Amino acid sequence: MRVLGFLAGVASATAVSPSVCGSHPETVPDCDKPDLGSCGNACCVAELSLSTAPLQAYTDTKSALMSLLSDGFSYVTGGDPNPGDDLRPYNVTKPKNFKFIFQGRHDAPKYKGPNADILDFAIYESGAGSVLRMFSLSRIHGALGDHGQNYKTLAFLAQKLESNSKPTPVHGCGLPAAATVQRASLFLQQRSVLDLSTPPSSSVCGASPTKVPDCDKPDFGSCGNACCLAELSLSTAPLQAYTDTKNLLMTLQSDGFSYITGGDPNPGDDLRPYNITKPKGFKFIFQGRHDAPKYKGPNADILDFAIYESGSGSVLRMFSLSRIHGALGDAGQNYKTLTFLAKKLDGSEKPTPLYGCGLAIDSEIQEYVQ
Ligand SMILES: *[C@@H]1O[C@H](CO)[C@@H](O)[C@H](O)[C@H]1NC(C)=O
Ligand SMILES: *[C@@H]1O[C@H](CO)[C@@H](O)[C@H](O)[C@H]1NC(C)=O
Description:
Strand content: 15-25%
Oligomer: single chain
Radius of gyration: 20 Å
Bound molecules: 2-acetamido-2-deoxy-beta-D-glucopyranose
Keywords: Signal
CATH topology of the largest domain: TATA-Binding Protein
Signal peptide: 1-15
Mean pLDDT: 87
CATH architecture of the largest domain: 2-Layer Sandwich
Shape: globular
């Protein structure tokens, strides 16, 4: 069966790299974890245990990225600013003993160049070996589903490192959302009701995040880079929620926000014709950016949004990813960006963190308290 599947994949996709799921994912190994909108767009966070120490694990993974050019992989460095990959001088111990961080890309035939999927990696020490945290994000706006490509990309790379193990999915990768929903209700109960004041004008945490509201959820490497996935309940129906959020992105230009559309291919934002019911009744999907003074243009954080129906209202799923290579920490910026938007939509609500947003540190602190 396996051989037949393999041959079918080859026949239907000549000249396509074996790292690509393509139009017949059922015939390609490791394309069995399709994701739908876990990061607004489709995404996958997975971890791979390695017997090698962090430095060796870093060297091997970076070499693999650089040697798999014909399979669409590449290693990303340079630019301005140009953070290094070596975290060892910073003695990071929480939430993990992170030693290296780096970025890559994965091209597929229809999605390459500026549309290539983003890969973020962080390596932490674990016993005598290491854990490679791997993240793949469908890059183009409107990418609700990935046909299994994000997990496939990570599994393909993992095979080049240690042939016998597969990366373990942590978030996205088609994992059921049950765990995160429970977590959400916990946070809803704990949510403060003291946020009715009008927010200050700045959407940036900057150099003194402790002095800026909502910069209290710094993240470290949850997506290889820092990231935050959060949800906001809205009383408006999906179409209205979409119109309001999109308008907001377009009007908050001086706060660094923008709305992304166009390009080739150019998927639309309206998911209603597809009658999606699982894992959520997704109705709209769209993308934005958030510039901060040092991180703008190609380094601007990526924002992905998906809206699903909930009763007579909607839920706005919001995702912010620190864009530049080497961004282990965000000084609270990803959650701040989403909260800044949320307050303009519904002044009484803060988005509920679901993944990233410093949750890994929070849960460690809770363990200490108990
Ligand atoms: C990290 O630890 C080393 C060795 O203990 C020390 O010399 C160095 O100053 C520390 N660096 C930071 C940024 O704390
Ligand atoms: C979605 O539902 C509508 C109304 O029931 C139907 O006309 C349409 O064909 C469906 N579209 C898809 C892609 O299934």
